[in-house]
Automatic annotation (TrEMBL):
Protein name: Glucose-methanol-choline oxidoreductase N-terminal domain-containing protein
Database matches in PANTHER family: CHOLINE DEHYDROGENASE, MITOCHONDRIAL, GLUCOSE-METHANOL-CHOLINE GMC OXIDOREDUCTASE
Organism ancestry: Eukaryota, Fungi, Dikarya, Basidiomycota, Agaricomycotina
Keyword NADP found: no
Domain named Glucose-methanol-choline oxidoreductase N-terminal: residues: 35-341
Region forming the signal peptide: 1-19
Source organism of this protein record: Tetrapyrgos nigripes
Amino acid sequence: MQFCTLVLVSALLPFLSTGYTSIVEHVDNLPTQEFDFVVIGSGTAGNVITNHLTENPAVNVLVLEAGGFDLNTKVPGFFGRDMGSPLDWNFTANLGLATENRMGTVVRGFVLGGSSAISSMVYTRRSDDDWDHYADLTGDSGWSWDSIQQYIKKNETFTQPSDFHNISGQFDPTVHGFDGISSVTLTSYVHKFDDLVIQSSLLPDAEIPFKLNPNDGNNIGLSWGQAMILNGERSSSATSYLALQFRKRSNLHILLHAHVTRILRMEDDHETAFSGVEFTQDAGATFQVINATKEIIVSGGAIGSLNILYNSSIGDAETLTNLGILSTLDLPSVGQNYTDQGIVDYIWIVNSTDPNDFLSQDESVREGQLEQWEQNKTGPLADGALVTGCFFRLPDNASIFETVKDPSAGPNSGIRNLRVPHAGTQRVHAGDAGDAGDAGTHYPLLIM
Ligand SMILES: Cc1cc2nc3c(=O)[nH]c(=O)nc-3n(C[C@H](O)[C@H](O)[C@H](O)COP(=O)(O)OP(=O)(O)OC[C@H]3O[C@@H](n4cnc5c(N)ncnc54)[C@H](O)[C@@H]3O)c2cc1C
Ligand SMILES: *[C@@H]1O[C@H](CO)[C@@H](O)[C@H](O)[C@H]1NC(C)=O
Ligand SMILES: *[C@@H]1O[C@H](CO)[C@@H](O)[C@H](O)[C@H]1NC(C)=O
Ligand SMILES: *[C@@H]1O[C@H](CO)[C@@H](O)[C@H](O)[C@H]1NC(C)=O
Ligand SMILES: *[C@@H]1O[C@H](CO)[C@@H](O)[C@H](O)[C@H]1NC(C)=O
Ligand SMILES: *[C@@H]1O[C@H](CO)[C@@H](O)[C@H](O)[C@H]1NC(C)=O
Ligand SMILES: *[C@@H]1O[C@H](CO)[C@@H](O)[C@H](O)[C@H]1NC(C)=O
Ligand SMILES: *[C@@H]1O[C@H](CO)[C@@H](O)[C@H](O)[C@H]1NC(C)=O
Ligand SMILES: *[C@@H]1O[C@H](CO)[C@@H](O)[C@H](O)[C@H]1NC(C)=O
Ligand SMILES: *[C@@H]1O[C@H](CO)[C@@H](O)[C@H](O)[C@H]1NC(C)=O
């Protein structure tokens, strides 16, 4: 552990000394208390909007982020470590009737970059069915798959994986963009197990056949995983949409450790005009207010934004009353229809004594992999969660459909997706092998 810390601190120094002047940690270090736009939350959505707004030098923008800044997030192979860490909000939720109301954890990023700084980096555009469903729901054809493709492509840069292996036959270049802000790549470290997975999909009677590109609208099949990684480092919204060339913009200001509690009305009797953003930097001991002269953008994520809206008396009147909050703006849809992706780990124990079989069994192997990542940005730590992965459907005549409606948006969407990560990356600790009483390697498969 100490080894990791040392290595990463040395990586931090050059990073901080190259133009982070737009990022400050205390409200007193901001140049002014009034901005044209105030963006709440520096996550995926907040950073995209901030990037776009600051293209116009005539407006100034303040981003308020509750979390801090952390460089450990740069190592793709460390992704799983951030769950339940200081970079996680640690929300919990009742998982509903299907789980007999068990409580579960809901992981959300508490750091610059938001959840994209701690995610598994899987690049999925979802299916054409999903986008067409959004268009139907909103009544806006601009959300349809055919309309949205050009924008997804425009903002993507597909790059070589960090080991520069020949990726011909592992993806379809016509589907991708090569000149945008978000970086996408393929796995750089292929284990013999991954090759077996691909080979299984190429068999004539494969149950889940090979799919050249999972992001062409039809998800179904088994593919090489595509990940948001650039030159072996995590590409989050903080490293892409807030990359150095954007942070240099003099109209962009970011305040860290600023926990927004409420948005405030212009005048007490005004129902829908808000101009103030209230936040605390000392866990509620004191509060500051910053005014937005043009707009406030609430981009705290599905849960963070909801907390702010409810605490600002905005939401379903009955729900607010039950929470003991006086409702001043009755918006029944706020906080409704939240669904999320569950993760279930399936663990197989394989009797292998090969020390190079994935991570975690052998400390010196692990250290060597970190050194390889440090020096060359290659090896198992240069990849995210997904080496190969698939979306598949249950057959239409599966008995479950007698009682449960197909939840997917259409035939090109998985009813299940299966990730086959590099086994042992984070979920499996050295202790696990001991507990199982053998020298086997654990292969977690995640079904989502
Ligand atoms: C562990 C994990 C793995 C994931 N893996 C993948 C994946 O492989 N592929 C994929 O496509 N998606 C993945 N996701 C989902 C993806 O990361 C999220 O859907 C996406 O980042 C959500 O963006 P957002 O802008 O809505 O919220 P976020 O990115 O979560 O941003 C919200 C930001 O607002 C800040 N904030 C919240 N409340 C306040 C407040 N009161 N005051 C100030 N700031 C506040 C938060 O700290 C955060 O920075 C994963 C998510 C997690 C948590
Ligand atoms: C896409 O990139 C352009 C610049 O190339 C930028 O203006 C725009 O904000 C980006 N949009 C998204 C959604 O990423
Ligand atoms: C989440 O839990 C971890 C472990 O207990 C803790 O270190 C961290 O501070 C918590 N996150 C927040 C935002 O409080
Ligand atoms: C990459 O592989 C493809 C097909 O396997 C082959 O046609 C091509 O020549 C290779 N490219 C290089 C640069 O080796
Ligand atoms: C709601 O706002 C009040 C008043 O500023 C603050 O004391 C409280 O901590 C906030 N609650 C939440 C959950 O943000
Ligand atoms: C913010 O606006 C409120 C009224 O809308 C005003 O009372 C306050 O002084 C303003 N704060 C600053 C820092 O301008
Ligand atoms: C949201 O939930 C409500 C109440 O359960 C339901 O009536 C509505 O159809 C849902 N909307 C969507 C888009 O799923
Ligand atoms: C694993 O293999 C070794 C050597 O072949 C054998 O002695 C041991 O019993 C095996 N363990 C399990 C759990 O099968
Ligand atoms: C990094 O790459 C160089 C050149 O291929 C190689 O000699 C070196 O051993 C690699 N370093 C590690 C730690 O793997
Ligand atoms: C579903 O259909 C397939 C072929 O059409 C058939 O082989 C299978 O037995 C059917 N399964 C059920 C549960 O009816």
